[in-house]
Design a protein that fits this description.
The chain is α+β, with helices and mostly antiparallel strands. The protein has three helices and four strands. It is globular and about 40 Å long. The model has no long low-confidence stretch (mean pLDDT 87). It comes from Myroides indicus. This is MobA/VirD2-like nuclease domain-containing protein.
């Protein structure tokens, strides 16, 4: 698995990119951490942005507050959504992000 870790200052841009993929059914939200579920699991970029704002406001002295992590398994690996979610949870835990808010989507090309 290859991990690409980006540092950004624009949370809304990262959320909007993800949400547009979900809205076009090219991605699905598989896992949330420290973000409340909504009724019927319907989400919007504005909802996620509001959820993350609470955490970002605590880091006002940090220039790039957003970590955007893309985990990319080998194309030969055929992991189910459940298996991929487990891999992501383990990765985030080992990286020390288990107590952070997490939005994980599986983007399908």
């Amino acid at each position: 698995m290859i991990a690409e870790i980006g540092k950004e200052s624009n949370m809304y841009g990262a959320i909007l990119y993800n949400q547009q993929k979900v809205d076009r059914e090219n991605a699905a939200v598989l896992f949330l951490n420290k973000i409340p579920n909504t009724m019927h699991d319907r989400y919007s970029a504005a909802y996620f942005n509001k959820c993350f704002e609470l955490y970002l406001s605590a880091n006002i002295k940090t220039e790039k507050t957003v970590r955007h992590i893309s985990l990319n398994p080998d194309p030969k690996d055929k992991a189910s959504d459940e298996q991929f979610t487990e891999m992501v949870q383990e990765y985030m835990e080992r990286m020390g992000y288990a107590i952070s808010p997490i939005l994980f989507s599986n983007i399908r090309t």
